[in-house]
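Assess this today:

___
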Amino acid sequence: MSDIVTERSGSILRVQFNRPSKKNAMTSAMYITMADLLNNAAKDDSVRVVLLHGAGDSFCAGNDLEDFLKNPMGSGDSPQSRLIDAFIAFDKPIVAAAQGFSIGGGTTMLTHCDFVYAGESAKFQMPFINLALVPEFGTSYSIPARIGYLRAAELIQLGQRFDAQRAAELGLVTRVVPDQTLLATATGTAQQLTEKPAGALQACKRLMRRSVRPQLEQAAKLENEEYAVRLRSADSKEAFTAFLEKRPPDFTRMKQTVSVG
């Protein structure tokens, strides 16, 4: 079975992350596939809406660490940056249904969706700081802009996990619904969107995002550069080693490096 399964339902392109045994964690190949799907859907007039969801009990647990360590992200073009660019450039509506875990990239990619329905079981987290890394997908800009700096600091600098109700309070999801009706609710919204005039719908999204798109592009670029530096730091090596050894990391002995730019 493919790690990403697609299905056309009328003018809805359904995209399912399909690694349920791994909580749908993303490999490099999955990032590339997702970027290609979005870029192709953007050019396909028969696709009006994209619906994202995950197989099994989770939406997406972020990077598959084993694959990620074999294919570390660099400061230039990468599978991750290709998907980030595809999300930022995508003018058609994206509806997401998130149940269970949405961790790291599983949370940050949701910030590029137009409608996010969270199941009552949903748990979100941006734990980049715990791996001595920085956020991605432009969230160093978009999260503070959306919820305010102080609340964003809890999520980004402390890496706090938060549940569906907290996500709704922060305005990070459209609505919380029972898990058993989650996909049906998201599908219903996607169907409603297909009945709207496609040109006007895309124009609405372009206009609504016009003022933030340059900032997102710049934030994503700076994040990628900083991410590549942090990923190769002693702190990050300690964090990943501790994770694999199932022990708490010890950053107190590490010599700090600060980038200037």
